[in-house]
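User: I would dearly like some help making sense of a protein record. This is the protein in question:
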Amino acid sequence: MRPLLGLAIVHGLHRTGERTWEDGKIYNPDDGVVCNSVMTIHADGTLRVRACVLVPLLGKTLVWTRVR
């Protein structure tokens, strides 16, 4: 098992709009799989991360909320 402290789990994203990034990779520490990813920041401050292995239609969207 890889140590998670300090591990970069998201990389390679390129900004494609004011609040969107595409063409990145995201690492899932639960199973060790690296997936393609896109991200968007919504007006409510949440970060929506879309991760998929092969086909975006079969991917999963995660909603990350900033802890204050």
